[in-house]
Specification:
The chain has 8 helices and 2 strands; from the N terminus they run E-E-H-H-H-H-H-H-H-H. The protein has about 300 residues and is mostly helical. Helix 4 runs antiparallel to helix 5. The radius of gyration is 28 Å and the shape is elongated. It starts with 13 loop residues before the first strand and ends with a helix.
């Protein structure tokens, strides 16, 4: 097994004098207690390298099936952004009979991608750090599906519904949009958490920078909307706010697409590395010592004399 990078070890888990596991530590693969096992050996229960369980939360040492799911989810999210942009360019605001069907299909596929992207690490390592962001992003995927359903219901059947029910659906729709905005911000936090597990500090910095910029632009957009509502005829005042917001949203939207693309490439590479690290035949226990020669019999001992 390759030499362990001490920087990748979980703190206070391995005895530096003997390189053995000094605490109760579950095997990432089967849950066997690895206490007293040598870091260069394999799990007695499943044959998984012990070192995979002592190296912290880096993706290259995580369960390869889980890392592959996260990578696949990021790929789906990336391509769905491209598809939605292409649909917007081709159809714009044109209302067609198949528009609701397209909305539903793209939403379902996007929810599936987000669900894979936010799959919890089966080892539980690092979960306490990303549980909030991960769950918020997951919930937002469900809310997005609900929002699409509400929009289609209001557009197609609002005339046949009681006014009170339509007003209730509108309020729910607004609350759903606000929740999705919060989840949109949380998504960048989750991106940063995944980037730290690569580790890729450049992607971490980029994720947090875009997140902060998006928060600023959202606040400015809210102020612009309020001014536009209050100004009435002085709409050009609001335009002064809206124009830089629109330009900034476009720039950081493009940066987000590039970020997700780079992240999914990096996580895919980590999934391949994890498969290699988890391959049982890659790491072998030290070969057994050759048997020692049997002690000489009495006849052989007498002949020697």
């Amino acid at each position: 097994m390759p030499a362990i990078n001490p920087a990748h070890r979980l703190p206070n888990v391995v005895d530096p004098a003997t390189d053995t596991v000094a605490v109760d530590l579950e095997c990432r693969r089967c849950g066997y207690n690895l206490r007293t096992q040598h870091e260069q050996s394999v799990c007695p229960e499943c044959g998984s390298p012990v070192g995979l369980s002592t190296r912290g939360n880096f993706l290259q040492y995580a369960n390869p099936e889980w890392v592959a799911k996260v990578a696949k989810g990021l790929q789906i999210v990336f391509w769905m952004i491209i598809v939605e942009i292409a649909l917007s360019v081709c159809f714009g605001n044109t209302i067609t009979p198949i528009a609701p069907v397209i909305d539903v299909l793209t939403t379902i596929i996007n929810v599936f991608g987000v669900w894979l992207m936010t799959e919890p690490d089966p080892s539980g390592i690092g979960e306490e750090k990303n549980v909030s962001a991960r769950k918020i992003v997951r919930i937002s995927a469900v809310l997005a599906a609900a929002s699409v359903a509400l929009d289609n219901a209001l557009e197609t059947g609002s005339a046949a519904l009681p006014d009170t029910f339509v007003a209730l659906l509108t309020i729910i729709g607004i609350a759903t949009v606000l929740a999705q905005l919060a989840a949109f911000i949380a998504r960048y936090t989750y991106f940063a958490i995944i980037a730290r597990r690569i580790p890729n500090e450049a992607l971490v910095v980029r994720s947090m920078m875009i997140q902060k910029s998006m928060i600023i632009f959202m606040l400015v957009a809210i102020v612009a909307a309020i001014i536009s509502e209050l100004a009435g005829s002085a709409a050009d005042i609001a335009l002064i706010f809206f124009l830089p917001v629109a330009i900034g949203a476009l720039i950081f939207g493009i940066m987000t697409i590039v970020l997700i693309y780079r992240l999914q490439v990096a996580v895919t590479n980590e999934a391949n590395a994890a498969r290699v690290n988890w391959a049982a035949d890659t790491y072998q226990s030290p070969p057994p010592m050759p048997p020692t020669a049997p002690p000489p019999t009495d006849a052989r001992a007498a002949s020697l004399h």
